[in-house]
């Protein structure tokens, strides 16, 4: 059976996981329009700032069976002194020949750009989906969580890619967590002080609040491994459309004397809706919306972060206490959280207070080039 590597075929790129995985797996595609935007050099701030990107599809007898991007994050390489090519949006059937051909193209990209290592998956930055699932394949992902089948890590190991940077996604049932369980003495002091106040993220003040959220994200994550501060354009590009799906009761900025100190962004889980609609806008999406989105039972915490000067003061606990109360009041039966690295002890401690359980174990994969 004939194999063919093609570059820049968006229709085939979008279709690949649907062919490779089928309808019965937990995989949920990004919206087709979002994926096109991510790969468009005229729209994506990463590429507008000079980072090169190519995307590939391997077809077997005309059917797309493997895909991935190859890209360089110039700001990341400069900040950390790396000479690194990243791969992302890696999806493939259990087809060794197709995956070999795909990664030969990625490694060729790296060599053409003079890089000494390849690492991924990054879809396209560390603020989007990261890693491959290595445990928990049976669990359906929430919005902004990666899902991948069990054979992909096996093929990467065969190709010489080693596991690095262990992470996990997680979930908890808000209805079973006592109201005050996330609280610490310092968090109680915050909630009782007039110096501290919550500002919900509503459509009316979305841009202002999300800019405060960006500042909290950049400040709180600045010393985290691999993090690169996001510009206002990048943050808006990645998070701007959340305005239309946010439940204002779930997300907020915590102010200290009127200045942003912490942020939590939690949204209804859209994945069942997106999966039923085939990740496309149209009549099927309208039907999916009418069938389920108005009464979501699952939510997902996209991010929470605390400014450096307020870390260790109970801000995280105060934020999670507020989210827990809103989830309970809204009738949500489960809440997930996107990846947290094993090295992030503070966040993992907060999860224990919520009786959270690991949903997926994930890793990045790295290979040094000769």
UniProtKB/TrEMBL annotation:
It comes from the Bacteria. Transmembrane segments: none annotated. Pfam families: Acetyltransf_1. Residues 247-334 form the N-acetyltransferase domain. This is N-acetyltransferase domain-containing protein.
